[in-house]
Design goal:
The chain is an alpha/beta fold. Helix content is 48%, strand content 18%. Among the domains are: 48 residues, no CATH class; 169 residues, Vaccinia Virus protein VP39 (Rossmann fold); 78 residues; 173 residues, 60s Ribosomal Protein L30, Chain: A.
Length: 673
Amino acid sequence: MKLEHYQRNFLEKRIDFRMKNLKLNYIQDYINYIRENPVEINLFLDKFTINYTYFFRNNSIYENFEKFIKLYANNCNRPLRIWSAPCATGDEPYSIAIILDQLKNKNKNFPDFEIVASDIDPAALKEANEGIYGEYSVHDTPENYLTTYFSKEETDLGPKFILSKDIKKKVELIKEDLIKGHQKNYKYDVIFCRNLFIYINQFAREKLLRILESHLFDGGLLILGGSETLPRNSRGFESINMRDRFYVKNLITQNESFKNRIYNLFKNEKNTKVERERVKSRDITKLIKNEVKEIQEKIKEKPKKEKISEKITSEKRINLDKGIQKLIEIEKIEAEVKITGIEVNNGFNGNSNQNKTNQIKKPMKEFPSSSIKKREKEFKKRGLLLEQREKVIEDKIAYLDKKYTNLEKERKEINKLVKKVKKQEEEVKNRIEILERLTKQVEQREKLVEQKEKQFNRRIRQVGYYTRQVVQQEIQISGISKEKIEKKENLDKYEEERLDRIENTNNSNELKIPMGYYGLIMSFDKNESATKFIIQGLGSGIALILKDPVNNIFAISHISLPSSSASKQGYHLLFPHTFVDTSVKDLYNNLIYHGANNKIITALIVGGAKLFLDYDMTYQENIDAIKSELKTRQIEIEAEDTGGLSERAIIYDTINDSLYIKKTWEFQYRKIT
């Protein structure tokens, strides 16, 4: 909606009303408030738009519309389409729907109809969509319509009237700014556009009139408000009923039969009643003013001592002054005002100069007191309607104040939620930064791991090369033929002669186990000279001891890595005790092969020290992997000494089934089991 289309004084009043309500002094403060509180836009629109309406307002318009549409429908071989714009809370389009529904029920040949109603105010459209109205909205509705199309419901705010769903279905509600254009690409048979022209400026009027004209069929009817007339240069429209502001588009182009019937339909429509009421009001005003003057002269003549008489006279004067004030207001309403091409007048035909010169002059005596009493009754009736309307408005104001208070509470809660969300966003940002740092650390670690893997692979290739050389030298020294070597390769893999088994003892009958190798001691064998296992420099690797003390079979392996999946070029086949998964399997099967009872095999694990950088978790992976493998094979861990930051040296005595450990900072071995 562009505010520049509306008259400045009207716009300033509406803005001033909202600023006073919000206790704001400057227009810039109000603009800032709207930016911070978008809900204010709807509240401003609710006050900006004039939604004063009720069902069958100005009933004579609907009566003459019914006459026109019955005549028009005789020449129409298609469904009727009517546009109500602006429609406010829907009272006008629903009134039209009720009239057309009545005509349809009375005459089966009456065409189907469709009504489009549009307005810029979403609050008004919401109320129209609900179809629930107060007592004032239906106060001028004919009784038969009220009982047929409404259901009454008592509430705390008084009776409410619920509109029939069948009537609501006849009307399509649209939110739009009329001056920008119409959303529908329709042509209409009748357009109601009442009381909008008086609030917009000349440019907007011309633009709106072009829009209305483009959406109206030739021969179609345009209905304006009682204080609005089309400019004299509006060649496309012809007035057929000036009192009700009925204009037909391009009537001159229609067939003679239709034109004659339209002319005859409103030929006898004169404004005699309005003219008569206007003359009566003016003469009554003069009569009351003369009576006031007479009373004032009598008051001056009476002595000052008559206090009681003066009191009565003053009261009478006050009552008469009130009557004069009401009549003056009536005269103001009846006064004709012209606004740049749209004549805003009191509802009777003819120019203003002619009305001034041709006033009816009659003696005061010709107006009997009965006419004054009749006028007083009318005033009382109007007063009751105004009181009722004020009550409805007060109820609406109270409801809106309550709604505004709730909206303010919701706004505060939303602000709290926004602050909370912002705080959470900051936390998320901080976490993202932390994750980015960790990602960089992981990337660096991956690079280091790749470097270590390359070094490890080179070392494996070197070991394989040296191993092959050692094997060749052993073959040359021992003089074993190729046939024997092939037979040896075909022997069971758990036979004594293996490259990764340590068999030779030192002077103390100890088997010293390097990384990637294993040892086996069978104490029941009289030829067995070894009695102890020794591992020195045990760091992040694991020393695994499997034992069957009943059958006196013991085995140990020195493991360095958690999984053989990292093995390349079959290294895990040559040295299975380098990896946790292949070492546990091979050591366990070795014990079973040499006569151990699988139900009583237990394990001792030592090692898993953290010796490298923080991001290198090989030590922990070794510990987790060895425990997982032992659990899978249901081997109980009898004792363990894992973790820490120092290298270890271990001695396992198979004769006494005792394990001794010493860390680098310790001076002597300590017994674990």
